[in-house]
Amino acid sequence: MTRWAMVADLRRCVGCQTCTAACKQANSTPPGVQWRRVLDLEVGEYPSVKRAFVPVGCMHCEDPPCMHVCPSTATRKRADGIVTVDYDLCIGCAYCAVACPYQARFKVDKQQFAFEHAMPNEDQSEKRIGVATKCTFCVERIDDGLARGLKPGVDPEATPACVNSCIAKALHFGDAEDPQSNISQLLAENQFFRMHEELGTGPGFYYLWDKAP
Amino acid sequence: MSAPQQHWDARAAANFMLGGGGSGLMVAALFVADPRLPVVLSLLLVATGLTAVWLEIGRKLRAAHVLFNPFTSWMTRESFAALLLFPLGIGSVLAPGALPFAAAAALAFLYCQARILRAAKGIAAWRAPEVVALVVFTGLAEGAGLALLFSAERALVVFFVLAVAGRFLAWRRYRGAVRSAALEPAGRTLAWVGTAAAAALLFVPPLAGLAALGAGWRLKFLLVTRAALKQEFSLPHLPVRGTR
Fold first, then answer.
1. For chain A, what are the domain ranges?
2. Cα–Cα nearest to B122, from A185, A107, A104
3. Omega before A47 cis (within 30°)?
4. Does the distance separating the beta carbons of A43 and B233 come in below 8 Å?
5. Cβ contact A85:A104 at 8 Å
6. Phi, psi for A132 (deg, rounded to 5)
7. What is the pLDDT of residues B206-217, one digit of tens each?
8. Cα separation of A102 and A205, whole Å?
9. What is this structure's pTM?
10. CATH node for B10-224
11. Best mutation site among B5, B74, B83, B112 for testing chain A: the one with the most A CBs within 10 Å?
12. ipTM value of the model?
């Protein structure tokens, strides 16, 4: 089985937000909606202050609370672990937004563009108005790449836009079930954590914080 | 630029207030000699609450899709309970023998509302297991309070006292598990107005009922809106760069 997952190396992320911009460009999200965000955190007290940049978004959980609460079955999980939203089924109740512990869901009620008129990359269709939206792991790129025999996480054309854009090689994507994959190697060589493990959601997003002991 | 919605607002809160009170009233109607008027009011309240939440959804013409996931979604189950509640409630107006079945459907509706909050893992004030008893007892106390506007029979008064006491205990238990600054004033109102004053006012049953109702609705409104703080991010480890 395949389990697509993402790895963020917190030691490498410089907080440049290029992934955020790449995601907005690739997915044409409206103003205020950021499927890929980078938190800028300061931790500690002077003189022991540390700063961390933390990419966040949909964690494509193993046991997604958003899917369980969804009354319309619009939110589903594919066999490869990607959590999807069917915009034609979603009723826009925002229950998934309050069920997600990662603040990954957005719903906008009217069409908005960055400037007065839609830019060429901006989505002008109504399909994502009044429904829940979130990071898709650029599922269309993955599926299209696989159909062409490419390897997600290795071949850029089959890899999420945020990962491709990362200037510091902090973001990685791959198959967590394949012990030879890029991300499995990273997880074997480093110490990592997943956000809010205590909630039992099983996030498909790993954060590297130190080399393995 | 309008901000993307990530929370529920007063329209969703109205469903919990009116739907909770309305379903509680259906249960309390079991203790009223002539339950027809309370039953009609109960159905009106539940219908108004559902209409309010319908106004919140983004795709109103797809509202029927809410019925698609009874396997895991408490929102779908709440809708099914409502679908049972209305014919049974109307039936109990015509044939009082149907009232226990309508009350059972109302109880199921109320329980589903409580589980809707419990299943929302993104909000600490909702996902606590203690929220279930709080929402159920709040609905029952509100419903009993409303029923006191119609009748003051001994059985109803006993039900009211038990529901209000149960709500107070459920609140204490919930507060022991969840500390929410947004709920503290409403919690005090619940204790002093909704419980102590309601008990003291029992010699004027409608006043006691209104005190219990108002305090419960205030608490639930704040629970669904102001206390609904999203789960924040946390880092169990900081990145180790260069020196340790």
1. 4-211
2. A104
3. yes
4. no
5. no
6. -80, 140
7. 999 999 999 999
8. 11
9. 0.95
10. 1.20.1630.10
11. B5
12. 0.94
